[in-house]
Design brief:
160 residues; 9% helix; 50% strand; ten-stranded mixed sheet; 1 helix; Immunoglobulin-like; mainly beta; single chain
């Protein structure tokens, strides 16, 4: 076997063994937090999470230095009444998106660090794991920025 042939075979072998491009991570977009009167102890937040990768993910936590605690909730109809139900994780299937919107799935943000005014920016950190591996070691974190703005009651805005 000639030297050029060996080099070509080694190059093909190395290319076949090299890791493929990394799986694209989740993306948080259009995040906003409902403005509330000064002294309010909680508000609601909304965003869209896209998962362009093929791997199913679970959103397991949302945190912010601007709030003492954040919970994920869904709104369900029960006996003709809308009720909130806390979710410990939110599945985000591969190649799909999950929308947190008024009247549906949303974030409940408790104990704001200070007053919230229209136009303020709130930092959020979303933590994901591979679906079914809530206690797994591999965690994916995504930083997002939410804008504080007034809600629209006509769109089913929450008034907690």
């Amino acid at each position: 076997m000639g030297g050029k042939t060996r080099i070509l075979l080694v190059a093909i072998f190395l290319a076949a063994c090299s890791p493929s491009a990394p799986e694209p991570g989740p993306i948080a977009a259009d995040a906003w937090v409902r403005a509330v009167p000064p002294g309010a102890g909680m508000t609601a937040g909304y965003l869209t999470i896209s998962n362009p990768g093929s791997r199913d993910l679970d959103l397991i936590r949302v945190t912010s230095p601007d709030f003492g605690k954040i919970e994920m909730h869904s709104t369900i109809m029960e006996d003709g009444m809308a009720r909130m139900r806390r979710e410990s994780l939110v599945p985000v299937p591969g190649e799909s998106e999950v929308v947190f919107s008024p009247g549906g799935r949303h974030l409940m943000l408790f104990r704001p660090a200070g007053p919230l005014s229209d136009g303020d920016r709130i930092g959020l950190t979303l933590t994901f794991t591979a679906s079914g591996e809530e206690t797994g070691d591999e965690r994916i974190t995504v930083a997002a920025e939410a804008v504080v703005r007034r809600g629209n009651a006509a769109q089913g805005e929450h008034h907690h």
